[in-house]
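As a warm-up, study this chain.
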Amino acid sequence: MSSPSLHAGVLDALGLAITSGDVPAGTPLTLDGIGAEHGVSRTVAREVMRMLEGLGMVRSRRRVGLVVLGMEDWNVLDPRVIRWRLQGPGRDAQLRSLTELRHAVEPLAAAGAARHATPQVRGELVDLARRMRTLGEAGDLTEFLALDVRMHELLLRSSGNEMFGPLADVVAEVLAGRTHLGLMPPSPAPEALDQHEAVARAVAEHDPDAAEAAMARIVGEVRRALDDLPDRTPDRMPDRMPDRMPDDEDGASRRG
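Now compare it with the structure written out below.
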């Protein structure tokens, strides 16, 4: 039986190669070729191909074998695809598109949470915002990120909209991706801490308008910060980012 880490290593290598364009759409792939390049058995190569096929990144074609597909076929909301794209030359474009998605969804999710969240969730949000301020002011960015991810997850899953909840992992990847790729400041801006507290307070007080407005300010600032970034291709991205990315949010200058 093959090791899960072996599957993961080959999957990451191929996923990065496809999303970066190093292996472009239309490229045929064979199990023997994958096995030879990565030093794995046909069994491992076949399982990795099944995973990529499930992500919409390859497709089996008669008399050709497996063929790489273009981005229009990828499951672009899968956290693995997001992580690979954030490590490639299209990083900034990926951040911008994900931030636009957040801008469309998260203010409505915050308003929904103000209407539908349980008392336990409302209390946890207030506590999270309080702890985030303490950690942010102390410069403990690792724990801050974990709490930030949790806060956004709670808002999405408590929104009362079943379509928003599954986006929690997407938001977690984008928040953590910006942190691990070095796009965040050394400490959260005071305004970002203020707005997180404002969201939590509005949800706790059953005020959907205030919750929506505060979250719109958070993601709006992220969007503006990303718009100010020059287009660039990173010289070298990390070989592997963490399997679970904590939460980072605010843009190149703040946390969201």
